Amino acid sequence: QLADTPLAITGLHKSYPGKKAAVADLSMRVERGQIVGLLGPNGAGKTTALRMMLGLLRPSKGEIRLFGHRLGAGSPALSRVGALVEAPGFLPHLSGLDNLRYYWAATGRPMLQSHLDEVLQIAGLDTAAKRKVRTYSQGMKQRLAIAQAMLGLPELLVLDEPTNGLDPPQIHRMREMLRRYASTGRSVLVSSHLLSEVEQTCTHVVVMHSGTVAAAGTVEEITAIDGEVTFVVDQPRA
Ligand code: ATP
């Protein structure tokens, strides 16, 4: 069962020179089919934690296991993880579909048309796939970016604040997209600073505060904690 767990983290630490630890003693797991929300105010250490999980940043201490394998440089388990941590640049004069093809060609991995079709459908971009990206709304571009991270149908999808800057209808579409993805038995880890958002999208929540876990559990368990996690209810950044 342990080998099957997409993500298991124990005692993770990261300090930047001259500052207090950005992540301190972080332990958490993501099981199959779960949508886990990593919730915390700006500066809680979410981005730092996600970057370590993706092998983009080396922890000062602690262990990260992906599908039972200890994460190290060039870990093959990383090919089972898809991620969006920074907005990718798209070619505006190409269609959404061609942007995805162009991106995938650069990975050198074979493209499966069935994957492409499934991902576009999950992203709700199937009818817009042949339109040029410059005609896309912000929400559509954001879903295309996540579609790109989903292209290999990774077993674990990691997203850093994917709804930042989106309006409520677009946030709703994003939520549907993540639910459709997880309903296929795959897992999602998504960071956010808004409890309302995590509450409606996720099955489980890990609340981060000052680099560590302040609370963790199912959405029902977390929302039942009266008052103690209200500090995470933050205003969206402009
Ligand atoms: P945000 O939503 O603002 O990105 P976050 O929860 O993702 O917040 P982090 O970005 O991980 O938090 O930042 C955690 C702490 O680490 C903050 O105090 C931040 O200033 C610091 N920090 C982050 N990146 C660096 C860096 N490259 N060098 C030095 N300090 C950093």
Automatic annotation (TrEMBL):
Residues 7-235 form the ABC transporter domain. The keyword Glycosyltransferase does not apply. GO terms for molecular function: hydrolase activity. Coiled coil: none annotated. Keywords: ATP-binding, Hydrolase, Membrane, Nucleotide-binding, Transmembrane, Transmembrane helix, Transport. Signal peptide: none annotated. Belongs to the ABC transporter superfamily. This is Alpha/beta fold hydrolase.
